[in-house]
Inverse folding.
């Protein structure tokens, strides 16, 4: 059962800070987009009816969320309500177990697939990315090479030959 | 009597060699698209569409329908084993299926999901067959105001059901609606909030959003963790476990029937069926349970309810597609394209002239559901073993599939970039306890909601909500939103 706002309980200090930042970011995003629609694009009432109503509700709820987070007493030992169920659901370590640095490094590793496919194209970029990733994370050469070759085979046979996907073979923009 | 003859004829027609062959080709195709996150059911239908040129109507439509029917059956396996829904409608299965897998009960969850999918699909066909002769009054009773309120109710229910607070659930649902407001406005065709970007002219796409919200946070989790999702033995899925899960469906007959009925009924309503039905069934199961607090911790009821509804809705979704040419779900919209390719125009005329074909399609749906569930039950112990792969191996491989699948869906590299943008949003939501399901549902339903609201206001004015069915749905909406508060109030009163 969903937790009621009144029973929102305590928040760990860094999570509380993140909660406030996140809700503020949502409010800022909505205000910016709706403001652009109303003041810059001058959309008609028909076009803006839904954004006004939905945006208004989001702002009210998010501001309420900010005050609720600020009002909640900090408790280093207690994870936020809902976060517990969600992290359990995902199998991911809890916020306490993960350091911000670890998450940032992991994020950078994952995002680096974009320049890989951009520079080398999908067919070569993905196996190369996998090879580098596996080696950097301590996998043996044999496993790394076999998995990279398997990815190459899957990309070629499944996506290019079977599904007829026109994957860029060369750097994007040159193919 | 004449209708029973049609039913018998429709049953016999699917046993033709050409129809059987295309179904046998379509079932594994649909299952693979269901299992692999990022390869949506819509991609499967779109890829198959060119192959039906020159085919006879029944085998041509059987190819599309059989693939479409089994996608959600395959998707349930990845939702349970990896915590990543194979396709958006499988998102509700993650809520209890994944915790079950992490508790070493993945086999039971898979067995229950597959059996409820197969039998739910069959239930949907029975509903379809039962209401085919009496279609018009049912679908016509749902006008634009009713459809609008049903969509709102769907989002509100999920907001209440989600993991975090009601407040956070509502923010997520509304944010989903807000993200869907980018791009051409459905009524006026004015490009809204496009900020000079060609990509935003068509608005954000469902595949990058769904993968960003559900796949990227899981991949980050796997990568940070490094070790296997399941330790040796944790996710040991045996045939006995899977069969036990299958029997669980028979141990919860009312839950299965109720959820399948919800799926079939919600599926009938044009545009709403798709992602709404499993969540509404999950919400109904949770609210009807004596132990609602156990939902989300990994219980079998939380798997049976969404999976029964998931496949049952397809039978319901065929109803408006066949009778009025109005797709009951996004997949049905592509199926409608298939009809047009084959020179058929669904609608009242179609029902009069080609009722035999309609019944034949119902039989295809029934066969595909049962055959897919049987195939998956046989191979489930092997499919589930991917959880033994270490996080450092699984994460980049999944990422590669996500990137390839996203690119393949539209051949647009910007989609891949947006997977990561929405991945950041998904990760933050997960960390802060915001339920991600309302966001995706809000996103999916917005186009139809905005159109239906516009039509309602134009047709009925500001009092468009005063129609009887609308009032009933609004009452359900208020009750659903207020239920957690009523429960708390009742509990406090009892304690006094």
């Amino acid at each position: 059962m969903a937790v009621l706002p009144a029973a929102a309980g305590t928040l760990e200090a860094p999570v509380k800070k993140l909660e406030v930042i996140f809700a503020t970011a949502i409010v800022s995003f909505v205000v910016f987009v709706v403001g652009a629609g109303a003041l810059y694009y001058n959309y008609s009432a028909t076009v803006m009816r839904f954004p006004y109503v939905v945006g208004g509700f989001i702002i009210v709820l998010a501001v309420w969320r900010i005050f609720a987070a600020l009002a909640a007493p900090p408790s280093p030992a207690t994870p936020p309500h809902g976060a517990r169920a969600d992290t359990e659901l995902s199998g991911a370590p809890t916020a306490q177990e993960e350091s911000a640095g670890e998450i940032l490094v992991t994020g950078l590793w994952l995002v680096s697939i974009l320049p890989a496919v951009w520079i080398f194209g999908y067919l070569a970029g993905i196996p190369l990315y996998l090879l580098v990733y596996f080696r950097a994370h301590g996998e043996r050469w044999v496993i790394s090479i076999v998995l990279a070759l398997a990815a190459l085979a899957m990309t070629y046979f499944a996506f290019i030959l079977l599904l007829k996907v026109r994957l860029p073979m060369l750097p994007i923009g040159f193919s | 009597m004449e209708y029973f003859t049609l039913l018998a004829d429709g049953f016999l027609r699917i046993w033709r060699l050409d129809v059987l062959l295309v179904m046998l080709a379509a079932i594994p195709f649909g299952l693979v698209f269901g299992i692999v996150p990022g390869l949506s059911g819509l991609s499967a239908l779109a890829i198959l569409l060119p192959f039906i040129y020159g085919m006879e109507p029944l085998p041509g439509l059987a190819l599309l329908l059989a693939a479409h029917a089994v996608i959600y059956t395959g998707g349930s396996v990845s939702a349970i084993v990896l915590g990543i829904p194979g396709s958006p409608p499988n998102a509700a299965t993650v809520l209890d299926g994944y915790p079950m897998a992490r508790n070493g009960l993945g086999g039971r969850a898979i067995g229950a999901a597959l059996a409820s999918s197969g039998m739910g699909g069959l239930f949907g066909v029975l509903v379809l067959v039962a209401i085919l002769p009496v279609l018009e009054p049912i679908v016509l009773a749902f006008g634009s105001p009713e459809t609008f309120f049903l969509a709102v109710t769907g989002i509100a229910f999920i907001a209440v059901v989600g993991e975090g607070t009601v407040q956070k659930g509502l923010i997520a649902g509304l944010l989903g609606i807000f993200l869907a407001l980018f791009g051409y406005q459905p009524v006026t065709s004015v490009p809204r909030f496009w900020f000079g970007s060609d990509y935003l002219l068509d608005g954000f796409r469902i595949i990058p959003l769904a993968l960003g919200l559900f796949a990227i946070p899981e991949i980050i989790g796997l990568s940070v963790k490094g070790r296997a999702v399941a330790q040796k033995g944790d996710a040991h899925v045996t045939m006995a476990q899977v069969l036990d899960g299958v029997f669980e469906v028979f141990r919860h007959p009312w839950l299965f029937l109720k959820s399948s009925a919800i799926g079939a009924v919600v599926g009938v309503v044009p545009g709403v069926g798709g992602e709404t039905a499993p969540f509404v069934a999950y919400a109904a199961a949770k609210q009807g349970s004596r132990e609602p607090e156990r939902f989300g911790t990994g219980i079998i009821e939380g798997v049976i309810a969404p999976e029964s509804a998931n496949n049952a809705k397809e039978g319901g979704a065929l109803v408006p597609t066949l009778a009025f040419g109005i797709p009951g779900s996004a997949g049905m919209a592509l199926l409608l394209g298939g009809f047009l390719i084959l020179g058929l125009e669904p609608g009242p005329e179609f029902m009069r002239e080609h009722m035999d074909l309609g019944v034949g399609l119902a039989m295809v749906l029934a066969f595909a559901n049962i055959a897919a569930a049987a195939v998956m039950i046989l191979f489930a112990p092997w499919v589930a073993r991917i959880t033994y792969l270490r996080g450092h191996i699984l994460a980049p491989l999944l990422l590669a599939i996500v990137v390839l699948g996203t690119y393949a869906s539209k051949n647009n590299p910007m989609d891949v970039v947006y997977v990561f943008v929405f991945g950041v949003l998904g990760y933050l939501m997960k960390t802060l306890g915001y339920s991600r399901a309302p966001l995706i549902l809000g996103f999916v339903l917005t186009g139809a909601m905005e159109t239906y609201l516009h039509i309602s206001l134009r047709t009925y004015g500001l009092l468009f909500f005063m129609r009887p069915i609308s009032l009933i749905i609004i009452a359900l909406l208020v009750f659903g939103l207020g239920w957690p508060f009523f429960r708390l109030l009742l509990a406090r009163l009892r304690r006094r």
